[in-house]
Amino acid sequence: MVKRVSTRRARARKVDTCKEATSLIIDYLNDELKPETTLSFERHLGMCSDCVAFLNTYKKTIQITQSFLRKKT
Amino acid sequence: MINVNRAVNKSNMEENAPLFYRAQEIDGLGPQMKYSKDLEGINRKGSSDEELVRLFAKYRDEESFNEIVNRSSDKVYRIALKLTDNISDAEDVIQEVFILVYKKAKTFRGESRFSTWLYRLTVNVALTKLRQSKRGKEVSLDGYMPKFREDGHHLVRPVVDWSQEVDKLVLNKEFRQLIQQAMDQLQPVDRAVVVMSDLEEMSNREIGELLGLSVQAVKARLHRARLFLRGRLAIRLGYSPT
Ligand SMILES: [Zn+2]
Q: Which end of chain A is flanked by fewer CB atoms within 10 Å, N or C?
């Protein structure tokens, strides 16, 4: 058990840059990040309006694609 | 526009019988149905898919085959249409899929459910079809991938949040054409990943199983496709795609 927790910690990622944040978007939206990584990701968003804009437009893209595909069927 | 009637017609018995004979002809093996007492009194409508495939594989039982087609052709058509986005391609896919079912029924081991096996066949046939008809239409996604400075910041700053602005455009016909075109420019596999994820709401694992990709590969394709679509929207609004 203890070992598992420590691997989990080791795999959590610290989000320092926009590049890292962007690469985590898909896992973030799927809620697949380690809790620590999610915190770190959100902390970055709190400081970076560029990444907020990037995330919002990324989410919007999914929404638009989804409603486009749904309307077709 | 989708002609639902066509899909429904596909499941008429009268249309299925020729499919059986066509498959038989293409298959070339041509052995007629083997009569067996095992087939007597079998209620095919009440049999499971797996049982029908077994009966067909063992006895080349035409009625079992037709029942399989009856049950599943709408589903096959529906998936094929979503993946190919083209009615005539989707109709070809139905034909090809059931010819494959005819040929490969013996290889169905019952380790997975028949519906999963059929779904996989359909996806493969539809992707092959899509590759043939879309040849050369795909574009490189590289120009749409985000670019960063050495310190890891976005290269083009500020990144503009156009998520509200785009709402005014979504009902616009020209805007829908833009999305259609962008979807068409995706590689068939990428398009399939987007359709399965956004429309079918499958998990990355399920998508991976159907397409023979790792979960990581599914995520990577999905991410790239989304970045491409995002970039296309951004350009339309007059902003940087990256
Ligand atoms: Zn950032």
A: N
ipTM score above 0.90: no
Q: Which chain A residues are Cβ-neighbours of B154 within 8 angstroms?
A: 18, 50-51, 54
- A53 is in which domain, residue-wise? 18-72
Q: Which domains does chain B have, with CATH numbers?
A: 13-133 (1.10.1740.10), 142-236 (1.10.10.10)
One pLDDT digit (tens) per residue for chain B, 242 residues: 333 334 444 444 455 667 777 777 776 655 556 667 777 888 888 899 999 999 898 888 888 999 999 999 999 999 999 999 899 999 999 999 999 999 999 899 878 899 989 999 999 999 999 888 876 778 889 889 999 999 999 999 999 999 999 998 888 899 999 999 999 999 999 999 999 999 999 999 999 999 999 999 999 999 999 999 999 999 999 999 98
The verdict on residue A55 lying in a domain is yes
> What is the whole-number distance in angstroms between the Cα of residue B125 and the centre of ligand 1?
42
Contact with chain A for residue B152, Cβ under 8 A: yes
DSSP A5-24: HHHHHHH-----SHHHHHHH
DSSP for B191-237 reads HHHHIIIIIS---HHHHHHHHT--HHHHHHHHHHHHHHHHHHHHHHT
